[in-house]
């Protein structure tokens, strides 16, 4: 399949999984040819057969994209995603995707709106029903405290 067909099929699969609405600012909610190329450059997805417009992508590339997005939705960085999926076959990727979509038994309930006191005078509010990982909150705090 072409790069355009790959992105189209990946976006359809994301919609089926409910992952097409992530859009939390770290990653765009949908794939486009540009961010697929970025993921290829980052080593998250393997090389296609051929080069340029003649490049052909297959089902394993599709599964790599979907699994990568499922892991990103759990808060993993591109580097962490790349480390987790590198070298996996389609069956292993599907297993990893399914595991990443499961909600842990000890997962906290996420209210419709969450807020965090980041620093005096700064409150971070999210209406996306997502938890912001403590490491990300710490990064935001460091930015606010940097003169």
Describe the 3D structure.
- The chain has six helices and two strands, in the order H-H-H-H-H-E-E-H.
- With 147 residues, it is mainly alpha-helical.
- It folds into two domains: 3-101, no CATH class; 114-145, no CATH class.
- It has a two-stranded antiparallel sheet.
- Strand 1 and strand 2 (122-126) form a beta hairpin.
- Helix 3 packs across helix 4 (78-85).
- The longest helix is centred in the first third of the chain and has 15 residues, at 3-17.
- The protein is elongated, with a radius of gyration of 17 Å.
- The chain starts with a helix and ends with a helix.
- The model has no long low-confidence stretch (mean pLDDT 82).
Write a compact overview of the structure shown.
With 147 residues, the chain is mainly alpha-helical. It is built from 6 helices and 2 strands.
SSE topology sketch:
Layout: H1 3-17, H2 33-41, H3 59-73, H4 78-85, H5 90-101, E1 114-119, E2 122-126, H6 134-145
Antiparallel strand pairs: 1-2
DSSP E strands, number: 2
Helix coverage percent of residues? 40-55%
- Any idea what the shape is? elongated
| Cα end-to-end separation | 50 Å
**Rounded average pLDDT:** 82
User: Count of helical segments?
Assistant: 6
Read across the widest sheet, the strand sequence of neighbours is 1-2
- Strand fraction equals 5-15%
Task: Indicate the low-confidence ranges by residue numbers.
Answer: none
Helix and strand pattern: HHHHHEEH
**Number of structural units classed as domains:** 2
Oligomer: single chain
* Main sheet properties: 2 strands, antiparallel
| Structure class | mainly alpha
Radius of gyration: 17 Å
